[in-house]
Amino acid sequence: MLGSTPSSGDPQVKSPKDGTLCRVNCAALPEKLLESELFGYAKEAFTGTVRNKGGRPKEGKEDIPLLVDHFNHRFNLLKGKNFEAVSPEVLCFLMDYPFPGNIRELENIIEYSFISCKGATIGLEHFDKDLLESHRKTMPLLFTMEQEEAQRIRAGLKRPEFSG
Amino acid sequence: MSIKLYLPSRFYYLWEGKKVLDVTGKNVAECLDDLVRLIPSIKNALSYKSGALDPHIKVLVNQKDVGSQGLARKVHDGDEIHFVLGTA
User: Fold this and answer.
1) What is the DSSP string of A2-31?
2) ipTM of the complex
3) Among A16, A91, B23, B83, which has the minimal tally of Cβ within 10 Å of its Cβ?
4) Per-residue pLDDT tens over the stretch B55-68
5) Which of B57, B64, B67 shows the shortest C-beta gap to A47?
6) Would you call B85 and A134 a contact, using CB atoms and an 8 Å cutoff?
């Protein structure tokens, strides 16, 4: 790793394969991703198929809202958007989703929704349909219950006593 | 014919921090071939072989998933291609 002088800015990482250099803005990287950014990825890490036990959000589900908020903020900056929130159904889905990949899968899910969403709030309709379908097949009853509960909450919020 | 191809955020570093490239092609596959010409290292990163992409990687044209059309999805001047790494 190079970049010893303050004026040189971000450190430069040299690829062991072809010797090319690229700048890495360490301050912009989440702590959990910094190591792999600097020292490389496991094969198929980008596709979310790596089973990284240490990095699975399922093991700390209480972290998921924080991680969603973190990625929401990050992609707002990276993509010049201004999504304020995700819908309750989205959070419900993500809290339930087993994340067979690693934490990058969550990041990729949020990135996908940032691209497909044209409105102000990210909903389940902006998620990858294959992802929704695979989860529906895996946990059909729970998924249906969550959907029904979300619909009941939405209907309740439309009642006059909550309208203003 | 110019198509805007948006890199996944994890690959911004491959193009000096830039997010989008102008590529040419009549369909997504040809645009990806053009992308590999511009950034050869992305071929391995995406497990891309001409005409075939890692099935875990999603492709969207004008913000809509190409679905079963896959890389054969036709594109036109001014279209925008995004691809996103594994979501399922």
Assistant:
1) B--SGGG-S-EEE-TTT--EEE--GGGS-H
2) 0.89
3) A16
4) 889 999 999 999 88
5) B57
6) no
Residue A138 tokens, joined:
């895996």
**Partners of residue B52 on adjacent β-strands:** B49
Question: Is the confidence at residue A96, as pLDDT, over 70?
Answer: yes
- For B24-51, letters b (16+ CB in 10 Å) and e give ebebbbbbbbbbbeeeeebbebbbbeee
CB-count exposure of residue A118 (10 Å: 0-12, 13-18, 19+): exposed
- End-to-end Cα spacing for chain A: 58
Six-digit token string for B34: 């053009």
CATH-assigned architecture of domain A60-162: Orthogonal Bundle (1.10)
Do B13 and A23 count as a contact with CB atoms less than 8 A apart?
yes
Q: Is B51 on the interface with A (CB under 8 A)?
A: no
Contact B62/B42 with Cβ under 8 angstroms?
no
Q: Across the interface, do B16 and A22 touch by the CB < 8 Å criterion? A: yes
Is 0.80 topped by the overall pTM?
no
CATH numbers and ranges of domains, chain B: 3-84 (3.10.20.30)
